[in-house]
Design goal:
411 residues; five-stranded parallel sheet; globular
């Protein structure tokens, strides 16, 4: 008879639950400026330490330090801060609108604004993003995307550009390089790699940027995407947003307990970085580095953005049921807006007074956009796209059986 102990299954547990403070020591946070910056033309072997460290630029005093400090103008930083503020105010207003039952649900990017807004600043016109439902900052950073139009999509009203065919927050803007969001997790990752491969086959100059959450890395599409990206050296940036929680499941359940998500990229032969996602300058610098690699035919880059989902997963979620209510206030990487604000004040390019003035201006912009969007209808008043639209935009010429069905419907 064997004298071995009985086998036991390990089930990862979060380091904090309601009623007890979270121990964030599992994050392994590097000091600002301590992580080296390799040349763009580097191999995945040479990024192994970068997949376990944490690239940071802004120190505790708001100063930009270290080799990753980017060459970026104060005008760009001011624009970036404004974009993050705009995104947060938009989210806040839409949360209220959902509670008023004018939209069915909403998903905020509270605490994660730097990732999308800084990344957008590092891309070029024509590049294509394949986002999840928490990268609205990619659109709100632009001047050519109407907030009112975004709200019409949320309300599925008569001016909804998606004609009521998409769930709220699942936008689609080809002209803005924003691929249609999918409700099925991880699909956008393999789609982005395929798009990037097509761009390379055509001899184009445009690159792709794929987005996925920490929980969805457990999906098969994530691993398939990494394989194809590595084998064909696809010009793509593979973004893993590790905001610590996938709905009510801690990131360790998806495999982030004893390693990092960035390390998976190295294991697949892809240059990989682990970056402070609440540091606007670090996000911009890492995004630029990865974009330059892609444009130089040096292959893909996987970036793990370490951040924290400050709010609920969606308006249907109550995070106080599974984690401490004050987690965000104690998260070691802080608030991305406050950190960039402090940096700009230190440069003499911002002030508390201007911050308040800009906040009021943006609040007015968001309120005006809401008023315009609601004039075309909300979930409460039934002003929705015509039922006839279900037959449109599929065939160049509508088949006879669909024409007959449309006539039977009387639209």
């Amino acid at each position: 008879m064997s004298s071995s102990q009985p086998l036991r299954l390990h089930v990862p547990e979060p380091s904090g639950r309601p009623g007890c403070a979270t121990d964030f020591s599992y994050l392994h946070v590097s000091e600002a400026g301590a992580v080296r910056r390799p040349p763009v033309a580097t191999t995945h072997f040479d990024t192994q330490d970068l997949a376990y460290g944490l690239i940071r630029v802004l120190d505790r005093e708001g100063r930009a330090v270290g080799p990753w400090a980017p060459e970026i103008s104060t005008a760009q930083l001011r624009r970036g801060l404004r974009s993050m503020m705009k995104t947060r105010l938009f989210d806040s207003r839409m949360l209220i609108v959902q509670r008023q039952r004018k939209i069915s649900f909403y998903m905020q990017s509270l605490g994660e604004e730097a990732i999308a807004c800084a990344h957008a600043a590092a891309l070029e016109s024509g590049d294509m993003c394949f986002p999840t439902y928490r990268q609205q900052g990619l659109l709100l950073s632009r001047d050519d995307v109407s907030m009112a139009e975004l709200m019409c999509q949320l309300m599925s009203n008569e001016r909804d550009p998606m004609k009521g065919r998409q769930l709220p927050v699942m936008y689609s803007y080809k002209r803005a390089g924003f691929f249609s969001i999918s409700g099925n997790l991880a699909t956008q990752f393999i789609q982005a790699v395929g798009w990037a491969m097509a761009s390379a086959i055509k001899g184009d100059t445009r690159i792709a940027s794929a987005w996925i959450g920490d929980g969805a890395t457990a999906e098969a599409d994530f691993h398939t995407a990494l394989t194809f990206a590595h084998v064909y050296r696809a010009p793509v940036i593979l973004n893993v947003v590790n905001n610590q929680w996938a709905i009510s499941t801690f990131q360790a359940i998806a495999g982030g307990e004893s390693t990092t998500f960035a390390a998976r990229g190295v294991g697949c032969g892809i240059a990989s970085l682990r970056v402070d996602g609440n540091d606007f300058l670090a996000v911009y610098a890492a995004s630029q580095w990865a974009a330059e690699r892609a444009r130089a035919n040096l292959g893909p880059t996987l970036i793990e953005w370490v951040t924290y989902r400050a709010g609920a997963h969606s308006t249907s979620d109550d995070p106080s049921k599974y984690r401490p209510a004050d987690d965000w206030e104690r998260f070691p990487l802080g608030d991305p807006i406050e950190r960039l604000k402090s940096h700009l004040i230190g440069l003499g390019a911002w002030s508390d007074q201007e911050h308040e003035q800009v906040r009021l201006e943006l609040e007015a912009e968001v309120a005006a956009a809401q008023k315009e969007a609601e004039s075309h209808g909300t979930l409460l008043d039934g002003h929705i796209p015509s039922a006839a639209t279900m037959f449109e935009d599929v065939y160049a010429e509508m088949p006879a059986h669909l024409r007959a069905q449309r006539q039977q419907l009387g639209v």
